[in-house]
Amino acid sequence: MPFAVHALGLAVFAQGTSEFMLSGLVSSIAADLNVSLPAAGLLTSAFAVGMVVGAPLMALFSRTWPRRRALLLFLAVFVTVHIAGALTPSYGVLLATRFVGALANAGFWAVALSAAVSMVPDRLRGRATAVVVGGVTIACVVGVPAGAVLGERWGWRAAFWAVAVVSLPAFVAILRTVPGGAPRDREEPAPTPAPAPTPVRDELRLLTGPRLRPTLLTMALVQGATFCTFSYLEPLLTRTTGLGTAWVPAALALFGAGAFLGVTAAGRYADRRPTAFLAYGMTALALGWTTLALTASAPLTALALLPLLGALAFGTGTALITRVLALAPAAPTLSGAFSTSAFNLGATVGPWAGGLALDAGFGYRAPVWVSALLMGLALLTANHVRSRARARERAGTGTGADGTAGS
Question: Which of 37, 134, 272, 345 has the smallest number of CB atoms closer than 10 Å to its CB?
Answer without folding.
Answer: 272
